[in-house]
Amino acid sequence: AWCPLSPTGAQTTQLLVEPPWTPAVLWDQVTLTCQGWGTAGATTWYKDGKWWGQQGPDRIRVTESGIYTCDRPGAGLSRPLRVVNDWLVLQVPAWALLEGDMVTLRCRG
Length: 109
Description:
Layout: E1 14-18, E2 21-22, E3 24-25, E4 31-35, E5 43-47, E6 50-56, E7 59-61, E8 66-72, E9 76-77, E10 81-84, E11 89-93, E12 106-108
Parallel strand pairs: 3-10
Antiparallel strand pairs: 1-4, 2-11, 4-7, 5-6, 5-8, 8-9, 8-10, 11-12
């Protein structure tokens, strides 16, 4: 798995979303994958800043709206990812964009 280096040189945890759009919406059947250095299967999940499951799978299917993060031992906490249950949403690609990149926006409802 690809894991970028943080400014201090330590491995960081990445929270990936499928389908790869943000904000993620429940009616897309969202799957989150926690990637990072550390023991596979030792992922701790958080929802809305509270413990949501420990030493669980590295990949989960989301069934509730909220703000999700994950933690891998030795790699740290991921950036938060918001999952919504709105009836109308404007989405952008979930991957990093650079100035000058062409961006596709999705307005869905």
